[in-house]
Amino acid sequence: MSAEAVRQPAAAPIVDVRNVRKVYRRDAEQITVLDGINLQVPPGEFVALMGPSGSGKTTLLNLIAGIDRPTSGEVVVAGTDVGRLSESELARWRSHNVGFIFQFYNLIPVLTAQENVELPLLLTSLSKKERRERALTALKVVGLADRAGHYPRQLSGGQEQRVAIARAFVADPGVLVADEPTGDLDAKSAEEILALMESLNRDFGKTIVMVTHDPRAAERAHTQKHLEKGVLKA
């Protein structure tokens, strides 16, 4: 190994979860959902979060995405401690740093595929023409350039999820978070979606954190992390 290689510092994690606890209060009762979580995700990694229902997977994903805040500890994503941001700062931060892929697509029924993909770009300074071009490019990446004018009801479930993925990365975020992205799809469509996510990770360098209960989906990730009763297992 050369001296140059020895001197190269390791890349700082793009996701750095430090001793995080998340406690929900129900009347006088306290429910600990996450208990002392530490998780570091390097840039360009593809991580699968696994575990039984109620283990805290989606809660951890929501903390990473800035949808929720930790009770204690720090969640630092792309160099920002998201727990310290105000609601308006969080919304602005999310629009630039995180793309969301959900189990049930969350497309707007009255908007075309292209208009759905454009939604995150409305928070940017891009012109209408630039937004349209970016959306069409994203649809091309997911293999749906010919469906740009179709409405969600005119698409299959797999095609709807492809549109949702195009919407997730159209603003070029550093991190994609996916919550059971294949949970509502048949086996063939699920395989196509997982191959697409692999491509985004490999060819576009997107860091992906994916919650899944499906071992076949988890196998596509570089790293698998298992949660059990709010604790990350070694």
**Span of the ends, CA to CA:** 30 Å
Return the average pLDDT rounded to an integer: 86
Strand content: 25-35%
Uncertain parts: 1-8
Order of helices and strands: HEEEHEEHEHHHEHEHEE
Q: Could you tell me the number of beta strands?
A: 10
Provide a count of the helices: 8
Task: Let me know the largest β-sheet.
Answer: 6 strands, mixed
Shape label:
globular
Structural class: alpha/beta
Describe this structure in words.
- With 234 residues, the chain is α/β, with parallel strands linked by helices.
- 34% of the residues lie in helices and 26% in strands.
- The chain contains eight helices and ten strands.
- The chain has helices at 3-7, 57-64, 87-97, 113-118, 128-141, 157-169, 187-204, 215-218, and strands spanning 15-26, 29-41, 46-50, 72-77, 80-81, 98-101, 175-179, 207-211, 223-228, 231-233.
- The strands form two sheets. It has a six-stranded mixed sheet with strand order 6-7-8-3-9-10.
- The protein starts with a helix and ends with a strand.
- The model is unreliable at 1-8 (pLDDT under 50).
